[in-house]
Amino acid sequence: MKIYLNGKLVDKDKAIISVFDHGLLYGDGVFEGIRTYDCLIFRLKEHIDRLFKSADAIELKMPMTKIELIEAIIKTLKANRLKDAYIRLVITRGVGDLGLDPRKCRHPTVFIITDYIVLYPKKFYQKGLEIVTATTKRNLPQALNPKIKSLNYLNNILAKIDAIKSGTEEAIMLTYNDYVAECTGDNIFIVNGGELLTPPVDIGALEGITRDAVIGLAKKSGIPFYEKLLKMEDVYSANEVFLTGTAAEIIPVVRIDERRIGNGKPGGLTLRLREQFKALTKIDGVRYAL
Ligand code: PMP
């Protein structure tokens, strides 16, 4: 496997970065998780735009242009001959000293990993996922804004540990004042009385690319859609619940904290949106040839 590292394609075991890299020492950096479907990089422009926004939010000056990054991604996919892949694009603050000062980091580190995609097992798409509410609250937007896709994922990891301890794969994260924000690695939607609802990202959630795609599909199909503040009571009493994310795509949720959602089966609108999303992954992105 070839890894793109600071302008070069290197073998996986030679893709090594310094222990003084502030991405490692402090989680100081940004990243993207992108997916390809049969040689189409899904919504690549949107991912690159979000990466630049995240970098801007932490005052990290990008060492490459958007076009250069896209070329580097395609070069890495080609080197690994991958048609259906997961792309991890990472920009760290770079090598510095042991202090926090980002000015000491002269050159950001850029690496791109392209690998086979690891998915939730098929049974979760057929039967639906069981999840829990995390005891760990989502970061305050005024402290570390969850809109920034930074390398600092400890908040999410602590909530993931909550999920694992409860014997599940995902957990809903609430804001400090108990509004539903998102899950550890996915956004959340509910369907109630034919309306599709999701929390506004400003309360403390990542503006998911899959989330945006689903909102677009709903609007196109004339499904009433609203961004709305949600409490867990709204989620428990919803007819349908589903999660969205690059790796998960659209995954139905049928149980939360041991409570059954709807009739305990993946909902009709969830499945319809899933079909429409599948169709979108065939057309909406940047193509490459191997
Ligand atoms: N929320 C969080 C915290 C995430 O890490 C992700 C990405 N895995 C998402 C939501 C979903 O975003 P996207 O649809 O862009 O993958």
Explain what this protein looks like in three dimensions.
- By secondary structure, the protein is of the alpha+beta class.
- The strands form 2 sheets. Strands 7, 8, 9, 10, 11, 12, 13, 14 and 15 form a 9-stranded mixed sheet that branches. Strands 2-1-6-5-3-4-16 form a 7-stranded antiparallel sheet.
- The protein folds into 2 domains: 2-115, Aminotransferase class 4, branched-chain amino acid transferase, N-terminal domain (D-amino Acid Aminotransferase, Chain A, domain 1); 122-280, Alpha-Beta Barrel (D-amino Acid Aminotransferase, Chain A, domain 2).
- It is built from 8 helices and 16 strands.
- It is 28% helix and 28% strand.
- Helix 6 packs across helix 8.
- Bound molecules: 4'-deoxy-4'-aminopyridoxal-5'-phosphate (PMP).
- The site of 4'-deoxy-4'-aminopyridoxal-5'-phosphate (PMP) has 14 residues, from helix 6 and strand 13.
Outline the secondary-structure elements.
Layout: E1 2-5, E2 8-11, H1 22-26, E3 29-37, E4 40-42, H2 44-57, H3 66-79, E5 85-92, E6 109-115, H4 122-127, E7 129-133, H5 154-165, E8 171-174, E9 180-183, E10 187-192, E11 195-198, H6 209-220, E12 225-227, H7 232-236, E13 240-245, E14 249-256, E15 259-260, H8 268-280, E16 285-287
Parallel strand pairs: 7-8, 7-14, 11-12
Antiparallel strand pairs: 1-2, 1-6, 3-4, 3-5, 4-16, 5-6, 8-9, 10-11, 10-13, 13-14, 14-15
